[in-house]
């Protein structure tokens, strides 16, 4: 697994390369990271990568040529043909299933835009996919790229100490895309609030049922559209539906 990142701020990626789960995975060679700065592919003394937009308007636009040259070098440095992904608010929403698909692949080239935008001709010529993290705007594509890499790397075999950790995450396919249930650890009572008795029972079936019901309850309260999506896919059991019916009854 390898990520090539085109960015004006390569130092930002030391977080995912050196720290935490992804840092350990990088040291253990579960994945590789190569950074490419578009300024290194300019010809002028100022290393210019942006210019004013045609038609007027605020801000600056990233130029096509430095970005395309960076992509070409990144492609030539690889032995596969990865997707070229632009982090963009106009892209398709990033999902757990897309993260899993990337984890099952050799990786990708990620484009981190800055300023007001990127010359559309570069997008037309080089970008194979646009991805968004949500309906909000950030200063550049670096933070979304970091989030995507973190979500993908943790799914790689051998990265997490507990193989069940990724499977129990919110949105994982095995849990039909529901939000995760609450978690507890020691002490058994904190500030007068005890751990739910079901989790102390040692009865695996009861614990699994409690977690499933809590997951359903939280999801229907916070993200009801996920319940509907799971229902349309036939991923809810009769027991799930019976519990949801109970939740819908007025107190």
Describe this structure in words.
By secondary structure, the chain is of the alpha/beta class. 40% of the residues lie in helices and 16% in strands. The protein has two domains: 2-153, 3-Layer(aba) Sandwich (Alpha/beta knot); 169-248, tRNA(m1g37)methyltransferase, domain 2 (Trp Operon Repressor, Chain A, Orthogonal Bundle), CATH 1.10.1270.20.
CATH class identity of the largest domain = Alpha Beta
Strand content: 15-25%
The number of distinct β-strands equals: 10
Main sheet: strand order: 2-1-6-5-8
> In the residues, how many domains can be counted?
2
Q: What is the overall number of helices?
A: 11
**Elements, N to C (H/E):** EHHEEEHEHEEHEHHEEHHHH
Overall shape: elongated
Largest sheet: 5 strands, parallel
> What's the gyration radius in Å?
22 Å
Question: Which CATH architecture of the largest domain is right?
Answer: 3-Layer(aba) Sandwich
**Low-confidence sequence ranges:** none
Can you give the mean pLDDT?
92
Q: CATH topology of the largest domain, anyone?
A: Alpha/beta knot
Measured distance between first and last alpha carbons: 51 Å
Structural class: alpha/beta
CATH-assigned homologous superfamily of the largest domain? SPOUT methyltransferase, trefoil knot domain
Helix fraction bin: 25-40%
